[in-house]
User: Fold these one by one.
Assistant:
Number 1:
Amino acid sequence: MGEEAHERRQTVPRPVILDQHWDQAFQNSPFWLRFELGGEVLGNRDQPVPRFLQAFHRAKTLCDALFAQSDSVIAILAAARCSADDLFAPAENAMAVLEAMGFRPPPPSGQWTAPLIPNDDDAPVLDWHAMDLADHVSRDTLVWNAIVYEMPLTPKAPVLSWLVDFDRGVMAHIYDDRGMDIHALDRESIAPLYRQFATWLLDFDRPRMRAAFERDSSQVTDSLT
């Protein structure tokens, strides 16, 4: 009881100033889950629509569960500076394309320019935006965009996205149609997702996740198909 209560207190408020180090606390935490979205059966090229439908269903289900108790969800967006040359979604104005897809956030609460990976001279320099999401429509538009980015489906914009509840210390990032990561600053914030969506966890990462989330192997239930 004491240990669990201590873990639940390991959260931090939203940073006063958002900059290139906004996710440092999440990256330093050992509590993160990696989920498989598109899977190995449905191909990107020969079955893109069924693959997308499965990936979108899983990603939306996971985001709904993760943010069910959230009062505020912040979208951290990173847009290519030379988006017209983007390999998968060339666009003259990446953010304008995202808005044309139905993304309707309020004005940014923070903006900065930084490389995708801090202190990496070879990483691309991106324009970053922090925006409060008031509804699920904008959030689900970002989910769509993240999944279709490397797929032969449109519309899509060359924009990377992260969804964060700083007050609860949880973050979701869909890296493409293959999968998504969910980070937390404490075990108990996302342990229910580890148990409830066990069959969606990426097999390769199961030993790491088991070590981080299982005190007792009987806690895990493979209840999904």
Number 2:
Amino acid sequence: MTAWPLDGKLASCSPTSFFCGGMLCTTALLLSIGCSGGNKLGRQAISGQVTLDGQPLATGSIEFAPKDPMGHSGGTTISDGQYAISAEKGLPLGSYWVRIFSPDQALAVPEEVMVPGSTRDGPSQPPAAVDRIPPRYNMERELSIDFTEDGTREFTFELTSRKK
């Protein structure tokens, strides 16, 4: 056992506890270095506008799903036709399917698609909202982008509610 001076008093510790304490500090240091910052995926900021029938989309969400099954997805909310994702949570370079949603709580929900247990007089659960965005812009995957090193970081999506 080794004695170490500590404020005029001797503190003792065994070589084993001294070694374990040193290893603990080294491990903590390595973890903090490994977990600090760094953009290992090469994420990039992305922003843009979304319109529906020529008007900024009041509210909604936008999702970017990678075409590569091993890729990383991203998404954010849309407000007053604008969306933005910081580099910290942005997209790695690649090709993406784009899905845009904007549920409209004011639209009547057809009886056949209401949440089980809800009624028109008083839902026991909130009814499913009808999406004002046509399925071709979300479920049918009509929209896509290529997010490249030398390409744009701003994308505009001009949607129409009319059928093609």
